[in-house]
Design a protein that fits this description.
Blueprint (H helix, E strand, L loop, with lengths): L2 H14 L3 E5 L5 E4 L1 H7 L3 H4 L4 H5 L5 H13 L4 E8 L5 E12 L5 E10 L1 H23 L3 E5 L5 E4 L1 H7 L3 H4 L4 H5 L5 H13 L4 E8 L5 E12 L5 E10 L1 H25 L3 E4 L2 E5 L6 H18 L3 E5 L8 H16 L3 E5 L3 H9 L7 E3 L2 H14 L1
Parallel strand pairs: 12-13, 13-14, 14-15
Antiparallel strand pairs: 1-2, 1-5, 3-4, 4-5, 6-7, 6-10, 8-9, 9-10, 11-12
Helix pairs in contact: 12-13
């Protein structure tokens, strides 16, 4: 190959190189710029040759830095490295990673600078985005209200956050490398936890569990766990990530609420069928609101138990607080009257107002008992009858 051919090949390689290539004379004027750089900046070769490179392509804020680079290149015998911004025709800034070198004549005098650059704008943005993402992830890990724990495949702690420290009492440094069973699991539940661990490694999604754990100071707590196997590109399990929440106080509060609800239900049950001991041998049951079959059965049972227990001669059913009177309620009252008679007590009905009486007549419901307008009248009758007896 002739020298001319070699020269043409070298020029073609430089011009089509995927990197930026630029040459500058001692005054900082552009003497060469390859096609790749021209295309990226939006210029033709005729527009840039002979132009002051810094004025045309470098933001003003980077001029001082560029002068320092040129000064270093003049005295350097090797390759220099720097990173600076380059302006396109549209004013957009590209971040370019440069490797510069000085070319000297045979007598050692300066000839020109040349630099080979790589546009790292996109990579820089990606690095910055990755850095921000990593920072956010680190902040999330540190500040999360839930315990976050990373395990290796042998169930040993790789890392855990401050919330995990708060839950279990072990610092991050103390926990790292420790086996989970020994660190926070009581002996009696270790077989259960071992089974869960195997399920986690075999699963391809979250595995939820609720179990008892032990803290550093020996307290037993109840924790909710969400565990996910960490897989590499080949689908192999390389670790486990866990989210843990101490639900001890919540479960205790829920149990207390359920207990209060049961107590309230029992109280309401008693209040729905109260039996009052008004006088020796005289009981009364106020009927308030509506009566359904279940309530009627409870009222009848309570009244009969009280009659048998006290040996009462009279039982007064007071309807003053009854909300309505229909065939169903009248039927329930009739059943209570008959049941009262079967255990040896006479039933009296009080508080039967005009509207209720009219309804009973319209429904053709016979009440074969003495009725009174008020509880006082019924009680007076019962006391007199008891004394006369």
């Amino acid at each position: 190959m002739t020298d001319v051919a070699e020269h043409d090949l070298a020029h073609e390689i430089l011009d089509t190189s995927p990197t930026f290539v630029v040459g500058l004379d001692g005054a900082g004027r552009t003497v060469f710029m390859n096609g790749t750089m021209l295309g990226a900046l939006g210029y033709t070769r005729d527009e840039v040759i002979g132009q002051d490179y810094a004025t045309m392509f470098v933001p003003v804020r980077d001029h001082e830095m560029l002068r320092e680079v040129f000064a270093e290149l003049r005295s350097a015998q090797g390759t220099t490295y720097n990173e600076n911004r380059v302006l396109t025709r549209s004013g957009r800034e590209l971040l370019v990673e440069w490797h510069g070198r000085t070319i000297f004549d045979d007598d050692g005098s300066f000839k020109y600078f040349y630099g080979v650059g790589i546009d790292v704008t996109a990579q820089k943005r990606m690095r910055e985005a990755l850095s921000r993402s990593q920072q956010r992830l680190a902040l999330h890990f540190q500040q999360a209200p839930l315990g976050m724990i990373e395990w290796d495949t042998d169930f040993r702690v790789v890392d855990w956050n401050p919330a995990a420290e708060s839950i279990f009492g072990w610092s991050r440094e103390e926990a790292q490398g420790q086996h989970g069973q020994e660190l926070m699991v009581s002996p009696e539940v270790r077989p259960y936890v071992a089974d869960i661990w195997e399920q986690i490694k075999q699963a391809r999604g979250p595995v939820h569990a609720v179990n008892e754990n032990v803290t550093r100071d020996g307290r037993t707590i109840t924790c909710e766990w969400t565990n996910t196997a960490l897989l590499d590109e080949d689908g192999q399990v390389v670790g486990v990530a866990s989210l843990v929440n101490d639900v001890t106080d919540r479960l205790k509060a829920e149990a207390e609420i359920r207990e209060r609800e049961r107590a309230q239900a029992a109280t309401i049950e008693q209040l729905s069928a109260p039996v009052l001991d008004l006088w020796q041998g005289v009981l009364a049951m106020p009927i308030v609101g509506g009566i359904d079959p279940a309530r009627a059965a409870r009222m009848t049972e309570s009244l009969l138990e009280a009659i048998v227990k006290s040996g009462a001669r009279f039982a007064i059913l007071d309807l003053t607080g009854a909300s309505t009177m229909d065939a169903s309620i009248a039927s329930h009252i009739g059943d209570m009257i008959r049941a009262t008679g079967l255990v040896g007590s006479e039933c009296l009905v009080s508080g039967l107002g005009p509207a209720m009486a009219r309804t009973l007549v319209e429904l053709d419901v016979p009440l074969s008992v003495k009725t009174f307008g008020s509880l006082r009248d019924a009680l007076r009758h019962a006391i007199r009858a008891a004394r006369a007896g």
